[in-house]
Specification:
By secondary structure, the protein is mainly α. It has one domain. Helices cover 57% and strands 0% of the residues. The chain contains 3 helices and no strands. Helix 1 (9-20) packs across helix 3 and helix 2 (30-37) runs antiparallel to helix 3 (40-56). The protein starts with 8 loop residues before the first helix and ends in a 9-residue tail after the last helix. 15% of the residues are buried. The mean pLDDT is 85.
Length: 65
């Protein structure tokens, strides 16, 4: 819900916390929650945010758009 208001830091903390607790990248639920609470543009923003955090954590290779 905070992501819908433009607050990305709590979502980043959620992703990092889930990973530290043992969740796999596939299990991170920020994207699905965003789709339910918001809409498709918010879902897309959440996917980008999760990919960014996964790259920062070294769990996803950098890709060229």
């Amino acid at each position: 819900m905070l992501l819908a208001m433009g607050e990305t830091n709590p979502a980043r903390l959620h992703v990092r916390g889930a990973l530290k607790a043992g969740a796999t990248p596939e299990e991170v639920g920020v994207c699905l929650t965003s789709a339910v609470v918001g809409d498709m543009p918010l879902f897309s923003q959440a996917v980008d945010l999760v990919h960014e955090v996964l790259r920062e954590e070294g769990l996803l290779e950098k890709t060229v758009p």
